[in-house]
Every structure is written in structure tokens, then in C-alpha cells.
Recover the amino acids of this structure.
């Protein structure tokens, strides 16, 4: 048996086609959405991600506002750029690409919560806890959307999330337990005594630990859906948290690359368009 693919790359293309129509409708109303990015330093991975986001925007008619700072940039210089984008009416929303090497909590907190298309501002994470509407974190929502668009049942499912990071694991638990998703979630982490015993119960496994190959075939219930969110570089190659033999046991697997990574970009684009649509209604 070999698992079916949760194809994030193809789903990104589908979502871009849908969003291109919504962007065209906004332009008919005189509104052009704009995405800003703030990048500090010269990490090659970060440059690739930011470049990919701007390419996505260009394809669907969203304007790009790109601010690249040298690795020597100070906290004050980065904060000045954030202030500038907060005030720029052409900038619908923006992200501060991580890592910056600076005080990230201070940077994130300085972004106007209404322009926080990463959904990582403390106010927006607070809204998520409270169940209020606001921009949602891209990777967790992208993971849910990837399952939904492949017909994987979430309501009532036993979901095991491996990893409690602020960008994926922690918010994913909050999202999946909302009434609209209705999953039962177990959040595993480095303090979990017996990871395998938890994963074995799961209908859906989300591997977001950042430990290459931590999820192996013997841990997976036959037919389960397995999302590989981890990104590590091993010998210069992107390597996920899911061992290759999992494909022999699982019903669905998201490849890595071409799985959750492109879905993160799809949700960033979606957040931009939704903010622009909200401004059109105002
Ligand atoms: N403020 C902020 N927001 C982010 O959303 C953010 C961030 N910081 N810092 C870094 C992570 C990482 N991230 C990815 C986005 C796209 C792919 C992606 O599309 N990857 C492709 C190609 C992977 C490759 O070959 O290198 C794929 O999976 O197929 C991956 C990872 C967003 N991040």
C-alpha cells in the first residue's frame, strides 16, 4: 500500500486561481491589495521564501512592497521600517520574515494587528484563544485547508500534533478544537513520555517538531493522514519530520517539499485578500 499525496503545490495553484478572481473584483472597485515584507540579513532560506511570496503576489495581481535590511541592521532601524509600513496605505498587510536576529517579540508586537497577515501578533493570537475573528496563522490554517481540500475528515478525528512552537503546533491545537473543526487534539512535545503510543491512536498526525524522521512507519495507524511540517536541512536538502517508510502505512501523506510549505504561502495570500475585501466593505 502506498499513501495518497496531500499535494500542497497543486492546491496552491488552485487557490491562486481563486484569489486572482477576487483580486480582479477588488481592482474593479479601485482597490489594489499590497503585501509588504521585512527581511533582515542574508539567510538563503529566508531570501527564497520572501522571493517566492512576491512571485505569488505578482501572479495574482497583488502589489509587492519589499524592504530588505542588512544583517547589521539595528532594532531601531527594523522598527522604523515597521512604522513606515504601518502608515503606508498601499500596504494592505506585511510580514517580518523570521529569523531576524533581533528582538522578534518587540518587532511582531509593533506591527499594526490589522496588517498582521502572519496572524502572529499577540492581539491576534489572543483573538484566536477567545474565538474572535482576525487574521489567522498561515501554516496551521494551511495544514487544515490541505486536509479539507483532499476530503480528509477532521470533525471527530483524533489528531496528534507533534511540536508546541508558536508558529505551528500551539495555534494548530487552538484551531482544530474550535467548534467549526471539532477535532480532538493531543499536543505532544519534548516532555512527552511515550510519543509512539500517542501517534498510534491518531487519525491525523501533524509532525511539526523540526526533528528529521521523528515519525516512523511503526508509529502510524494504517490509513492515517500524516502532515509533514518540519523543515530541516540535511546535507543541503530539505528534510521533513516524516520518515519515507510512513508512505507504506499511511492513507495520506503531505510530501516535503511541495506539501505544507506552499500552503503557508496560499494562506498568506488569502489573509491579504481578506483584509482588502474587509476594507472594500467598510
Ligand atoms: N514571518 C514569517 N512568516 C512565515 O511564514 C515564515 C517565516 N517568518 N520564516 C520562515 C518560515 C518558513 N516558511 C516557508 C514558506 C514557504 C515554504 C515553501 O513554499 N517551500 C517549498 C520549497 C521548499 C524548498 O525547496 O526549499 C515547498 O515546500 O515545496 C517553506 C517554508 C515561511 N516562514
Amino acid at each position: 500500500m502506498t499513501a495518497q499525496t496531500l499535494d500542497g503545490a497543486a492546491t496552491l495553484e488552485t487557490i491562486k486561481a481563486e484569489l486572482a478572481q477576487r483580486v480582479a473584483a477588488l481592482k474593479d472597485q479601485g482597490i489594489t491589495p499590497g503585501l509588504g515584507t521585512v527581511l533582515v540579513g542574508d539567510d538563503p532560506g529566508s531570501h527564497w521564501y520572501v522571493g517566492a511570496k512576491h512571485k505569488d503576489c505578482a501572479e495574482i495581481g497583488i502589489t509587492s512592497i519589499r524592504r530588505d535590511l542588512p544583517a547589521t541592521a539595528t532594532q531601531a532601524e527594523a522598527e522604523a521600517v515597521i512604522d513606515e509600513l504601518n502608515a503606508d496605505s498601499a500596504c494592505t498587510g506585511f510580514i517580518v520574515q523570521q529569523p531576524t536576529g533581533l528582538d522578534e517579540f518587540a518587532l511582531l508586537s509593533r506591527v499594526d494587528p490589522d496588517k498582521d497577515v502572519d496572524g502572529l501578533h499577540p492581539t491576534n493570537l489572543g483573538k484566536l484563544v477567545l474565538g474572535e475573528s482576525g487574521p489567522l496563522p498561515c501554516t496551521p490554517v494551511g495544514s487544515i485547508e490541505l486536509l479539507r481540500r483532499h476530503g480528509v475528515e477532521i470533525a471527530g478525528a483524533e489528531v496528534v500534533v507533534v511540536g508546541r512552537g508558536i508558529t505551528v503546533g500551539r495555534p494548530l491545537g487552538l484551531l482544530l478544537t474550535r467548534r467549526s473543526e471539532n477535532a480532538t487534539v493531543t499536543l505532544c512535545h519534548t516532555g512527552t513520555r511515550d510519543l509512539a503510543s500517542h501517534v498510534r491512536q491518531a487519525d491525523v498526525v501533524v509532525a511539526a517538531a523540526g526533528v528529521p524522521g521523528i515519525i516512523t512507519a511503526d508509529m502510524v495507524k494504517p490509513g492515517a493522514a500524516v502532515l509533514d511540517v518540519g523543515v530541516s536541512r540535511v546535507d543541503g536538502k530539505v528534510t521533513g519530520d516524516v520518515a519515507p517508510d510512513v508512505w507504506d502505512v499511511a492513507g495520506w501523506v503531505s510530501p516535503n517539499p511541495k506539501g505544507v510549505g506552499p500552503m503557508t504561502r496560499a494562506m498568506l495570500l488569502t489573509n491579504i485578500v481578506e483584509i482588502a475585501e474587509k476594507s472594500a466593505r467598510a
About this structure: The radius of gyration is 19 Å. The chain has a mean pLDDT of 97. Residues 9, 48-49, 52, 95-98, 118, 138, 231, 238, 257-258, 261-262, 264-265 surround 5,10-Methenyltetrahydrofolate (CB under 6 Å).
